[in-house]
Amino acid sequence: MGPKVIGKMNNNTEQTEIKAPPHAAIRGDIERIKSLSIRRLDTDQVVSTKGRESWMLAQLIVTGPKGFTTLERPAPRISHYAFLLRKHGLPVETLNESHGGPYSGHHGRYVLNLPVQIVAQEFAQ
């Protein structure tokens, strides 16, 4: 049985539920996240984020080792949010992927291969 479909995104693609490891569970609607603090399990460093940085970090945690592309999780300035998370010392990888079609080219897949523990999370009402 594949992932459970939980809704449609703006570009009418299906958004699927991806199971995160139990130690890294986001407990709320990621689209409404305001702040997120995590503890790196490799170094014990605590990283606190706000706003879109929190959204990006939550997406990376939920998608796990599969990561995501802007086609799967549309949002403006994703590469900038990855840059900001790297400034916090988080190893966000950008994997280069090719795609075909009439506008063939390359796109990035963002992945956080790091065990983390959620310390605190806050969501908008």
Describe the structure.
With 125 residues, the protein is α+β, with helices and mostly antiparallel strands. It has one domain. It has two helices and seven strands; from the N terminus they run E-E-E-E-H-H-E-E-E. The protein has helices spanning 52-63, 78-87, and strands spanning 5-8, 14-16, 33-40, 46-50, 92-99, 105-112, 116-123. A hairpin with a 5-residue loop joins strand 5 and strand 6. The model is unreliable at 1-23 (pLDDT under 50).
Spatial order of the strands forming the largest sheet: 4-3-7
Proportion of residues in β-strands: 35-45%
> Helix content range of the residues, please?
10-25%
How many strands?
Answer: 7
Report the mean per-residue pLDDT as an integer: 83
SSE series: EEEEHHEEE
Task: Please give the alpha-carbon distance between the first and last residues.
Answer: 33 Å
> What are the low-pLDDT stretches, counting only 5+ consecutive residues below 50?
1-23
Reported for the largest beta sheet, the result is:
3 strands, antiparallel
Question: What is the number of independent domains?
Answer: 1
Overall geometric form:
globular
Write down the Rg. Answer: 15 Å
Class by SSE composition: alpha+beta
- The helix tally amounts to 2
